[in-house]
Amino acid sequence: MKSMGTRDKLAAASGHRRVLFVVFAFATFLTFLYTTSHFATAPGSASASGSAAASTTTTSGSAGGGGQAGSGSGSGSGLPLPVFEALVHFASISNATHRMSDTDIRAISAVLRARAPCNLLVFGLGAESPLWLALNHGGRTVFLEENEFYVKYLEPRHPGMEAYDVSYTTKVRDFRDLLSAARASRRKECRPVQNLLFSECRLAINDLPNDLYDVPWDVVLIDGPSGWNPNSPGRMPSIFTTAVLARSGATAAKGRPTDVLVHDFQFEVEQVLSREFLCDENRVAGSGTQSLGHFVIQGGGAGDAFCSGQEESGEKTRRRRRK
């Protein structure tokens, strides 16, 4: 998501809402047709379907770890496939200002189709935010946004949207110094497995609502904060925090990997920080686009390395310093 001013964001949101109104009206109609057709052609299976649905709901509730949390299995999506595809189709051909490309929208949607309903964490609010909320119907979707006014503007206009403003202290111009400091503290403050609430790493986001650190996130989309000029906060904190969340606490304990999607992957900060903390060996080949990096992170792990080879290189550096 390219950075934009508040006025541009509000104009984009206004235009996009008109498109989404048509999309959701069409989706509702499709859902009605699908449901009517389904029950008309299979009345004898209603009892069995109800039992199966109840079983799935019970399983999802226990796996999700919370009242709003989804199962993350992808097998119990609340949206029928025709409705899901209709939403993606209309979003991908919309002419909303500052929207993602249709290829990026479809690549992200493919991941959500496989995992939804799930626990979805999105850094950044944009033209596609209502789409991600809709595609994860039945799961929990949380947005983290740098602009407090934008959160207050959009949240009431989209029922069910859960968004929080985040204060970032980093600057793009300092990203290499911040990266060097994180590497030097990888065995201490900036280690890959830790409780972020008490982290003193300069790249860690530790002031979110406390319960968000206890959610087992299944998918994380990094599309914020802004990074368009040297004074922008940049996505260093969101990438680092995601890397730690995926390896720690409830996310690591859920027994399933975390899909991490990094938008604007063609830019230096996104590439360098993703290689450092999300790791090339975790990147999914052939998934995503030139401007979208897709990583799959397994939870847990020991040591002070995010990626293979980091522990060894760190030890060599310490030996040189001792000499």
Automatic annotation (TrEMBL):
InterPro entries xref list: IRX15/GXM/AGM
Disordered: annotated segments: 50-76
Membrane topology: Single-pass membrane protein
Chief location category: Golgi
Coiled coil stretches, renumbered: none
Compartments in which it is found: Golgi apparatus membrane
Biased composition (Low complexity): 50-61
Keyword terms: Membrane, Transmembrane, Transmembrane helix
Keyword Transmembrane helix: yes
Composition skew (Gly residues), residue ranges: 62-76
Pfam hit, one: IRX15_IRX15L_GXM
Any one of the GO CC terms: Golgi membrane
GO biological process, one term: xylan biosynthetic process
Domain of life (superkingdom): Eukaryota
PANTHER family: OS11G0490100 PROTEIN (PTHR31444)
Protein name (database record): Polysaccharide biosynthesis domain-containing protein
